[in-house]
Amino acid sequence: MALHRIRRISAPAAECWPPALPAARRSGIESWLTDPGSLTQRLRRSSARFELRLLRQGPARALRDEYPLLGLPQGRKVWRRDVLLVADGVPRVLGHSVCALSALRGPWRLLRHLGVKPVGDAVFTRPQTRRSAMRVKRLSAAHPLLRLARRKGRAREDALWSRRSSFVYGGTPLWVSEVFFPG
Predict the structure, then answer these.
(1) Is the pTM higher than 0.70?
(2) CATH number at residue 126
(3) Does residue 50 lie within any of the structural domains?
(4) Rounded to an integer, what distance in angstroms lies between the CA atom of residue 3 and that of residue 80?
(5) CB 95 within 8 A of CB 176
(6) Phi, psi at residue 18, to the nearest 5°?
(7) Is 123 a domain residue?
(8) HSE of 183 in the Cβ direction (CA atoms, 13 Å)?
(9) Which domain, by its residues, includes 77?
(10) Does 99 fall in a domain?
């Protein structure tokens, strides 16, 4: 599979997470939070055994701050996917992706058939895909993604670093958030 360099675009005005820099400099994992390449490929290269554990995929509610990014009213169902990226038997990243359900009949129809394939494998093989600027946030214990990471990935921390960006294909965004486990 050929990976393409994805063109950068600015983050939409509705994005409320801060820009990756300078926030990522305080994290201790700056290179992971700001890497514009495929996180999946990086994990595959740095581990002997890579695995994706599918936690959820299908119609569901988005996070409250994702609705403005998708241009949808609060509470509307979206396509949502939550996964654990596991390297050498240890959960390393919680991946969370959302897009409008209508996108599954259009530009993002390939997402319906991902199964246990990473979203990154789909977006980085399409040369027409554009990626928004990376945004970084330290999630607090009250954040839904941190609660999910604690339940499914057995994270014990009260705060975890995360990043978020959109991949735009055919004019339609797919938002991807990644929560990084310690270590």
Answers:
(1) yes
(2) 3.40.1410.10
(3) yes
(4) 24
(5) yes
(6) -75, 155
(7) yes
(8) 9
(9) 7-180
(10) yes
